[in-house]
Amino acid sequence: MIRFDDVTKVYPGSKRPALSKISLEIAKGEFVFLVGASGSGKSTFLRLVLKEEKATRGVVRVAGKDVAKLSSWKVPHLRRTIGVVFQDFRLLPNKTVFENVAFALQVIGKPRHTISHTVPEVLDLVGLSGKEKRFPHELSGGEQQRVAIARAFVNRPAILLADEPTGNLDPTTSLGIMRLLDRINKTGTTVVMATHDDDIVDQMRKRVVELTDGRKIRDEDRGGYATGVIPPVPGPGTGSHPVQPTVPTVPRGQRG
Ligand SMILES: Nc1ncnc2c1ncn2[C@@H]1O[C@H](COP(=O)(O)OP(=O)(O)OP(=O)(O)O)[C@@H](O)[C@H]1O
């Protein structure tokens, strides 16, 4: 679904690459966490997928297509197959919940009758039925992020990119958002999420790709936020502070 072949990105005027020689494949339906310190290149990775930035070297493929070879009139089509969610929600403040989600369908020319039945469906999916008429300032942060996810998902994109979606939320609210992203992933949507949230990564046990200074230093199935330990599975009797087993982790592709 997403494939990087030896991709390097150097921003104009910068000496150090934001991404350096990244090769990686994300299959349809995968859930991948992108982790790494601030400035390690996570957002740049997402921008290259969206063709908001061009790779300096290497090839970025999305749904089998080399994005560098897409003519400019095909870029909106590429972006329609990708939903995006940000840390700061980016809702339209003077539109209601319904209108924020409906707008995503209006701009791609969906007819009114499609909008009137699709928007309530997706608002139900994200747990916001009954709040259609609220404005963003009348919602909690978690609810605003649910609206943003509804808007990103209403067109059933093949890929959902999330850049620090829990960055402004408390731990409990964050967990609710992660459950929602997990549900969306289970519908077949490929999810790539950049995050600094170690608790979330440790609890979810998904594929983890770690970047340092633009280089990929780890790609691990069911990984934790940090290298070297498999996160604990909370279970009966473990309480809220389960003992963390220190066992070798399994690099991607080497699992038996
Ligand atoms: N538009 C730009 N022009 C020049 N340099 C940029 C630009 N955007 C990002 N960079 C640089 O590229 C590097 C990677 O930045 P990027 O935003 O991808 O990192 P990040 O891992 O997403 O960071 P954060 O976790 O803080 O969002 C950084 O050194 C940053 O300063």
Protein architecture, described:
- This protein is 29% helix and 22% strand.
- It is built from 7 helices and 10 strands.
- Helix 5 runs parallel beside helix 6.
- The strands form 2 sheets. The chain has a 6-stranded mixed β-sheet with strand order 6-7-8-3-9-10, sandwiched between helices. A 4-stranded antiparallel β-sheet has the order 2-1-4-5, with helices on one face.
- It starts with a strand and ends in a 36-residue tail after the last strand.
- Strand 7, helix 6 and strand 8 form a beta-alpha-beta unit.
- The radius of gyration is 19 Å and the shape is globular.
- It is α/β, with parallel strands linked by helices and 256 residues long.
- It binds adenosine-5'-triphosphate (ATP).
Judging from the principal axes of the Cα atoms, what is the shape? globular
Ligand inventory: adenosine-5'-triphosphate
How helix-rich are the residues, as a percent range?
A: 25-40%
The protein's oligomeric status is: single chain
| Biggest β-sheet strands, sense, barrel | 6 strands, mixed
Unreliable stretches: 235-248
Order of helices and strands: EEEHEEHEHHHEHEHEE
Q: Please indicate the percent range of residues in DSSP E strands (runs of 2 or more).
A: 15-25%
**Number of distinct beta strands:** 10
Distance between the termini: 24 Å
Give the neighbour order of strands across the main sheet.
Answer: 6-7-8-3-9-10
SS summary, helix count: 7
Q: Report the mean per-residue pLDDT as an integer.
A: 90
Q: Over all CA atoms, what is the radius of gyration?
A: 19 Å
Q: Which structural category fits the helices and strands?
A: alpha/beta
InterPro entries: AAA+_ATPase, ABC_transporter-like_ATP-bd, ABC_transporter-like_CS, ABC_transpr_LolD-like, Cell_div_FtsE, P-loop_NTPase
Subunit structure: Homodimer. Forms a membrane-associated complex with FtsX.
Protein name: Cell division ATP-binding protein FtsE
Domain ABC transporter: 2-238
